[in-house]
């Protein structure tokens, strides 16, 4: 169970990720944002929003871009041992795998994704025997605003 201070940190960083999701939506990208934070010092390491259309890159998901930027910022492909990744939507299989390979200590996400998620839905990546690193997972942080931005974005595109 998280204490009040941890819950406040989670809400703060998820709100920042939501701001990035809004920026993605303005660019015509799926509104997903990710923020990578040193869990011990609460220092921002890297952040990103979805950019597969802009970058012409199917791997241009917010989580992947934040992890890549963190590797550059830390000058190491092995990321710091106490990082927390905040993302507005439950990660897909590709992103769950990248989170595992980067050895992210903790994953916090807002909205669940019954169709494309791979943490509590789909392949349940971290429950597989072949998964070599499992982050601690917290879900549902600011779930309603995280879900709402996605619903509104896709409703407007239909």
| Annotation, overall tally of beta strands | 5
From the spread of the alpha carbons, the general shape counts as globular
Quote the distance from N terminus to C terminus: 40 Å
What structural class do you assign from the helix and strand content? alpha/beta
Please count the helical segments.
Answer: 5
Query: Average pLDDT across residues?
Result: 95
Sheet-strand content, in percent, reads 15-25%
Strand order of the largest sheet: 2-1-3-4-5
Describe this entry's structure for a reader:
This protein has 5 helices and 5 strands; from the N terminus they run H-E-E-H-H-E-H-E-E-H. The mean pLDDT is 95. A hairpin with a 4-residue loop joins strand 1 (33-38) and strand 2. The chain has a 5-stranded mixed beta sheet with strand order 2-1-3-4-5. The radius of gyration is 14 Å and the shape is globular. It has 158 residues and is α/β, with parallel strands linked by helices. 41% of the residues lie in helices and 19% in strands.
Q: Which features does this protein show?
A:
5 helices, 41% helix, five-stranded mixed β-sheet, 5 strands, 158 residues
Gist of the model:
The chain is an alpha/beta fold and 158 residues long.
What is the secondary structure topology, with strand pairs?
Layout: H1 4-26, E1 33-38, E2 43-49, H2 52-55, H3 62-74, E3 83-89, H4 93-101, E4 106-111, E5 136-139, H5 143-157
